[in-house]
Amino acid sequence: MAIATVNPTTGLVEQEFDPIDETEIERRIAAAADGFVSLSKTSFEERAGWMRAAADLLEADVDELARLITVEMGRPIGQSRAEVLKSAKGMRFYADHAEEFLAPEWLPDPSAVNASAAGTRYEPIGVVLAVMPWNYPLWQALRFAAPALMAGNAGLLKHASNVPQAALYLDTLFERGGFPAGSFASLLIPASGVERVLRDKRIAAATLTGSEPAGRSLAAIAGSEVKHVVLELGGSDPFIVMPTADVPAAVSVAVKARVQNSGQSCIAAKRFIVHSDVYDEFLGLFAARMGELSVGDPLDESTDVGPIATESGRDELAGLVDDARAKGADIVVGGATPDRAGWFYPPTVIADVTPEMRLFAEEAFGPVATVSRVADAAEAVKLANSTTFGLSSAVWTNDPAEEDLFVRSLAAGGVFVNGMTASFPELPFGGVKDSGVGRELSAAGIREFCNLKTVWKG
Cα separation of 317 and 314, whole Å? Predict the structure, then answer.
């Protein structure tokens, strides 16, 4: 893929960029290594001041950045604006809490280990390489960068090739906020250039948010170099609705959960699993609401669903729907690629999905929802756990016993009860199975790229 801004609303190339050459790659890695040495010697108070200043810069540019995001990857403008503000909030969260999260922990009774004092401390590990996706071009990158820098690490960002202007904005943000030179930089390189950077001895660890194949590839390289990784990969999250649920409320949230970011979110609800007692009511209301959504120019404040970010992504989504249709699924609403400029796909609801259809197990990265009928909670759990993914899940029930069953039994990194999956700086985020390893956000996220050092004194 060329490194270029290709407007998904029009399909036209807005701007192209040359990848940096080997000399510049070397310069940036060397600068990051030096930046780590400088940054690791600073105090939490100094880093917090710089992080808050960078967050202020981000907020000051909110309108410009929101438009940039929308032009580069097609998100409706109001959601783009919200991403900028959420990113600034996350940066301030780590400025406020990094010292607390990384405080030394001492055993209350060191005599148990024959010591006068014993415990642990968290220390930065070095330069961390981040390989980030286009779907949340600021939030995904900054939820890595904020904790990494606040811990005293340096960061290098290899961003998705279709959001180069977002990458270039982030390239200078932290130095503009006051961080030492080299603390953070973007690498405009193709995906094929990641291995060379990751194998460099000055790179201590890596994190990737993206597809399962990309995660497997990066993990294999890191494993051969004995380097730690955090991976947040795909998801096909279940959204379970039981008879005790407030069905109209569940439908309202279900629509938002499916079409957030025009359906292009790993944690978007994708498989709606509904008890037979409320199935017809849910499906009727859900399909009606999905069919009413406005699809169009994402720069228009009234647009609900913008284009798919890439032509290949739109074609892949259409292929999943066409496969289900050919194998007997019921296309309740949507399901046809519109004849218009840009890479649009309508909100689509599909019922009667069976295991031989690709949609049964594969992730639909766009506004396409499947709705399945189950007889009881046990069948709901079985169907929810039937894919290789395990990122997050949502459950709608007002039965305490059912709630307990779902929380205990769903194979996922999160369970959201009577709501939709979301990411918060205060809570850990990540998945199990093929959805990844490790955690981002909260105290867990900042500790991922630290050396947990044991200290013992006789």
Answer: 5
| Active-site option among 266, 363, 448, 450 | 266
- Give the number of residues written for the chain: 458
Buried b / exposed e across 135-157, counting CB within 10 Å, b at 16+?
bbbbbbbbbbbbbbbbbbbbbbb
Q: Which long-range contacts (CB under 8 A, 24 or more apart) does 406-413 make?
A: 406/240, 406/377, 406/380, 406/381, 409/381, 409/385, 410/238, 410/381, 410/384, 410/385, 411/384, 411/385, 412/237, 413/439
pLDDT of residue 301: 98
User: Does 301 participate in catalysis according to the annotation?
Assistant: no
Question: Would you call 186 helix, strand, or coil by DSSP?
Answer: strand
- Tokens for 440? 């981002």
Cα–Cα distance measured from residue 438 to residue 446, given in angstroms and rounded to the nearest whole number? 11
Strands (DSSP E) found in 42-190 = 105-106, 117-124, 127-131, 154-158, 184-186
pLDDT of residue 271: 98
Alpha-carbon dihedral 343, 348, 352, 355, rounded to 10 degrees: 30
Q: Tell me, yes or no, if the two domains 4-232+433-457 and 237-417 fold the same way.
A: no
Residue 24 falls in the annotated catalytic set: no
In angstroms, the CA 197 to CA 79 distance is 33
Q: What is the pLDDT of residue 202?
A: 98
| CATH for the stretch 237-417 | 3.40.309.10
Spatial separation of the C-alpha atoms in residues 350 and 352, rounded to whole Å:
7
Task: Tell me the two tokens of residue 288.
Answer: 């009606």
Task: Check residue 361 and give its pLDDT.
Answer: 93
What is the crossing angle of helices 44-60 and 77-101, to 10°? 170
Strands (E), 98-198: 105-106, 117-124, 127-131, 154-158, 184-186
**CATH architecture, domain 4-232+433-457:** 3-Layer(aba) Sandwich (3.40)
> What is the rounded CA–CA span in Å between residue 98 and residue 255?
36
Note if the pTM is more than 0.85. Answer: yes
- Active-site hit among 232, 362, 363, 440: 232
Domain assignments of the chain as residue spans, ordered by start: 4-232+433-457, 237-417
**CB of 414 closer than 8 Å to CB of 393:** yes
The whole-number pLDDT of residue 83 equals 98
- Which residues, given as ranges, of the chain have pLDDT below 70? none
Residue 55 contacts residue 91 (beta carbons within 8 Å): yes
